């Protein structure tokens, strides 16, 4: 628009401001629904016996949504969870769907998540991990530090993670501890890798489903487990609290 300043004066063009309502949030919601629905459908058909395939699908969705998510401030979170171990060296539980006796695993994850990247501390404990042993008790404790990749906003938030930390198997009898891990005694350094999906009902409350694989980097020597690296899967569900 140009004003009329009168004779002998220079006209000045006045810019016109145009405001366009953003639709990024709406697009993100539809992308979340489409991708996560495809994960659940394919998971029902193929991934019950192949958790690696499920993690690969979650990873692709997490990376795509993380790269296309709008910037957001980092939010803290805490997730108390309960689940069970399977596969690898888990006693009487060779796979996710073929598990005669589920050994309860419980713990808590806490950390901070930005728009695409986050950090997590994960603590878990599984009693009778190797199965019931007459005259002895056993367990596995883990404390892991993980990097998370995935969208930190939206109602549906798939993610992948990986990290390192402490994996501590333990066996005890009526006469005392029977645990030995070479020079490291009861502790072994290990890694975990996995993923999952968090569904948020609002800004501060949601539910998280999680699947991850644990593996020690050192051989574990126990009375009932000798000269091998300990590995297992953990499936869990937890209450996601954001703040």
Features:
single chain, 243 residues, alpha+beta, eight-stranded antiparallel barrel, 2 helices, 10 strands, 17% helix, 47% strand, elongated
CATH class identity? Mainly Beta
Structural class: alpha+beta
> Structurally, how many domains make up the residues?
1
Report the β-strand fraction as a percent range.
over 45%
Cα shape: elongated
End-to-end C-alpha gap: 48 Å
CATH domain fold name? Porin
Q: Which strand order does the major sheet show?
A: 1-2-3-4-5-8-9-10
Sheet having the most strands: 8 strands, antiparallel, barrel
Name the helicity range: 10-25%
Number of strand segments: 10
| Poorly predicted spans | 10-48, 180-185
Q: Do you know the CATH architecture?
A: Beta Barrel
How many DSSP H or I helices?
Answer: 2
Order of helices and strands: HHEEEEEEEEEE
Describe what is shown at a glance.
The protein is α+β, with helices and mostly antiparallel strands and 243 residues long. It has helices at 24-47, 51-68; strands at 75-86, 104-113, 117-127, 136-149, 156-173, 176-177, 179-180, 188-200, 205-222, 228-242.
What does the model show?
The protein has 243 residues and is an alpha+beta fold. The chain has a single domain, classed as Porin. The protein is built from 2 helices and 10 strands, in the order ααββββββββββ. It has helices at 24-47, 51-68, and strands spanning 75-86, 104-113, 117-127, 136-149, 156-173, 176-177, 179-180, 188-200, 205-222, 228-242. The protein has an 8-stranded antiparallel barrel. Residues 10-48 and 180-185 have low confidence and may be disordered.
